[in-house]
Amino acid sequence: MEIPANDHTTTPARQALDALAVNTEDTAALDTLAGSEVLVPVPDDASQEDAADPGAVALPVLEQPGGDPVVPVFTSEGEMAGLLPFVSRYRLVPLGALASQWPTDDLSLTIDAGSEHPLTLTSEGVRTLLARP
């Protein structure tokens, strides 16, 4: 599927990120974000079977300039295409469900890394701030 580069749709998740840029303790914005679906790029080396498995999500891990591993997720196709134009496959995953299964090692999560108001959380932050019952 071709992803339009100018599709910068303002989703509820995008609005929550904008609100958190103003007030990092905005619980309504955190709840909105945790309840939102995000686009998780499917790594190129993931098989079609793994990419379609509803019980498992292959996390794309990128190295940040400091060497720290980070998983990029996005609130819209436009945000993803702006930062990772080469990505051809993705999965829609509820952010709260992803957070509840987040690994305990030093793996950060970044939401809309190329946007005006990105959000990067440590592994602990992902599990405590976004994992909602």
Automatic annotation (TrEMBL):
This is SseB family protein. It comes from the Bacteria. InterPro entries: SseB_N. Residues 14-127 form the SseB protein N-terminal domain.
